């Protein structure tokens, strides 16, 4: 029997581990199952290169609860350890066996999938156990060893009569951690962290129906057998080559990742790169609502099939964190507890690669089947618009597939839009004016006026559109975006021809005075314009600059303080309308006031601005006018 002290540089490392290193106690199971996986993959590698003369077979890892004995067992059939190796790897904290192994076999072991390079993973067991045992037998023909430690620096190491190759870790669960003796808890942890580990994990047994014999009688009763309950999928879709997967395979894997998600993904992007870093994964575009309140943290980050986190900001460009799926890379730098990313140049390289890969995939989808791409546009546009604003590399590529829908349900690229509107929508200064609406119903009157003149009107309704068009304008100096309700139609795209007012200057001044006395200030600024006599008498517009700055402030950006400014509108009075003349020619002040209020309220109604008391008063006044 050997006794001794664990070689650590502090008096007692275990409280330190328990309190600081691993903030989340539940990851002890992830670490121990990861170690068991490492041990198994090491053996696989050694047998494949002829350095281990044993039969690899079909090893599995077993997790077993002994509720009565208050013990949790993690058993593997891997490489095992000799007594000397136990002394070396277990008693010298932070000396990683996996790292030494990788170093020794660095050329041939490149793709073995061995996880460990932390060395402290085993000690996470002491977060939940007040005593830990290791019973292990090496693949080498040497006696088995039995190591025991009660959480102090003291340990015992004795020979064991274990006859089978591999390692068994026995955790004597502490009183404050008895939740880890519950089957549902362990099952949940295995599903969270080890769902896609590369070695089958057994957790209990299940009943499986035996095949019905061909000569079975009519009253045959189905027979069952007990089989291992394997809780993981050792070969998830992302570990396979895209050529070996069908569309149905990708959909099935999506359901496996998100069993409670009922919508099918729109499409997927399979990531696969081995230079200058290793990265595999599958990203799915789910259906997204046109708002920014989208649940993130739906992409899972793995390292050699071990779950690390679902907070992938940094490794995945921010605009893609709205997607779903899996990313797996052994080259992602993690802190020692494998819980979060460390700052590293590789992280930015990986992020740039993912951005490029997604852009390339979107371009190919657009090129190969534009009609299908257009059908999916409204479900993916918020991600792409956000990407154009936040990732310069994505913006560079997005021109090839970014679409701008029209109110007539057609879709144009920016180049197609410029070509289509250049004849009708170039103003007197030679500038292209792209008209757009944010809401087909609310701005119907303005859209109708624009389309009547043969203008193309886009439908840009996402919450970040103000930011996007600001960027597009800055990169296309001869192009301006103007919302259809920003001014009356003749002022939206100014031409050389002007309409002459029927009213004299004196009459116009009088009309303006009458309207200004009734219209509330400072919300409305009265503006007289000579328009076609068939155009609306009163039109409410909201200046493009002011409205856009307010929208940008509301979603982050724009000019400081603009978001808190009150709404301000222009009331455009058509001096060539019959109503303008009627207001001027009405001598009765009360009747004149009613006409102006009625016209104003009708204009407000068309902009969805008439509410509450004002709406009630408008309805009452309307009935009175009908009666009179």
Automatic annotation (TrEMBL):
It comes from the Bacteria. One of its GO terms (molecular function) is ATP-dependent protein folding chaperone. Signal peptide: none annotated. ATP binds at residues 31, 35, 76, 81, 96-97, 167, 338. The keyword Chaperone applies. Keywords: ATP-binding, Chaperone, Coiled coil, Cytoplasm, Nucleotide-binding, Stress response. PANTHER family: HEAT SHOCK PROTEIN 90 FAMILY MEMBER. This is Chaperone protein HtpG.
């Amino acid at each position: 029997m050997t006794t001794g002290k664990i070689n650590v540089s502090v008096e007692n490392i275990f409280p330190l581990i328990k309190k600081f290193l691993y903030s989340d106690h539940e990851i002890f199971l992830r670490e121990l199952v990861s170690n068991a996986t490492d041990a198994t993959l090491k053996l696989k590698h050694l047998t494949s290169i002829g350095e281990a003369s044993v039969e690899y077979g079909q090893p599995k890892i077993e997790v077993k609860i002994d509720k009565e004995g208050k013990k949790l067992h993690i058993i593997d059939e891997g490489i095992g350890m000799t007594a000397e190796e136990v002394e070396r790897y277990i008693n010298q904290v932070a000396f990683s066996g996996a790292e030494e192994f990788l170093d020794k076999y660095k050329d041939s072991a490149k793709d073995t999938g061995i996880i460990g390079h932390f060395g402290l993973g085993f000690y996470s067991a002491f977060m939940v156990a007040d005593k830990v045992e290791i019973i292990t037998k090496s693949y080498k023909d040497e006696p088995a060893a039995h190591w025991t430690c009660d959480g102090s620096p003291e340990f015992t190491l004795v020979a064991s009569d274990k006859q089978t190759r591999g390692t068994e870790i026995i955790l004597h669960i502490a009183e404050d951690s008895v939740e880890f003796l519950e089957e549902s808890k362990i099952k949940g942890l295995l599903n969270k962290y080890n769902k896609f580990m590369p070695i089958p994990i057994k957790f209990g047994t299940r009943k499986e129906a035996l095949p019905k014999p061909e000569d079975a009688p009519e009253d045959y009763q189905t027979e069952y057998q007990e089989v291992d309950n394997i809780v993981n999928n050792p070969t998830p879709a992302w570990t396979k080559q895209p050529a070996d997967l069908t569309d149905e395979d990708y959909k099935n894997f999506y359901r496996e990742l998100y069993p409670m998600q009922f919508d099918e993904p729109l499409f997927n992007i399979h990531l696969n790169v081995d230079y200058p870093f290793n990265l595999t994964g599958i990203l799915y575009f789910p259906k997204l609502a046109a708002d920014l309140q989208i649940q993130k943290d739906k992409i899972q980050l793995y390292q050699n099939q071990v779950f690390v986190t679902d907070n992938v900001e940094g490794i995945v460009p921010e605009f893609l964190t709205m997607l779903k799926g899996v990313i797996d890379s052994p080259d992602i730098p993690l802190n020692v507890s494998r819980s979060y990313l460390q700052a590293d140049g590789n992280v930015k390289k990986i992020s740039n690669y993912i951005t490029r890969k997604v852009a390339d995939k979107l371009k190919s989808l657009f090129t190969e089947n534009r009609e299908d791409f257009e059908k999916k546009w409204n479900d993916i546009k918020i991600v792409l618009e956000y990407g154009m604003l936040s990732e310069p590399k994505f913006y560079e590529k997005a021109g090839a597939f970014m679409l701008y829908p029209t109110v007539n349900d057609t879709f144009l690229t920016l180049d197609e839009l410029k070509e289509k509107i250049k004849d009708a929508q170039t103003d007197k200064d030679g500038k292209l004016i792209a008209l757009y609406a944010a809401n087909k119903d609310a701005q119907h009157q303005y859209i109708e006026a624009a389309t009547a003149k043969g203008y193309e009107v886009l439908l840009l309704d996402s919450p970040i559109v103000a930011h996007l068009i600001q960027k597009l304008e800055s990169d296309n100096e001869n192009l301006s975006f103007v919302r259809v309700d920003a001014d009356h139609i003749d002022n939206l795209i100014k031409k050389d021809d002007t309409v002459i007012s029927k009213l004299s200057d004196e009459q116009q001044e009088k009309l303006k005075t009458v309207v200004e006395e009734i219209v509330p200030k400072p919300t409305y600024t009265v503006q007289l314009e000579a328009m076609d006599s068939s155009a609306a008498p009163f039109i409410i517009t909201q200046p493009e600059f002011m409205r856009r700055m307010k929208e940008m402030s509301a979603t982050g950006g724009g000019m400081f303080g603009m978001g808190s400014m009150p709404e301000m509108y222009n009331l455009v009075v058509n001096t060539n309308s019959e109503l303008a003349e009627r207001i001027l020619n009405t001598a009765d002040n009360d009747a004149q006031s009613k006409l102006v209020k009625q016209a104003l309220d009708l204009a407000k109604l068309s902009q969805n601005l008439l509410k509450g008391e004002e709406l009630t008063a408008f309805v009452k006044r309307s009935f009175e006018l009908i009666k009179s």
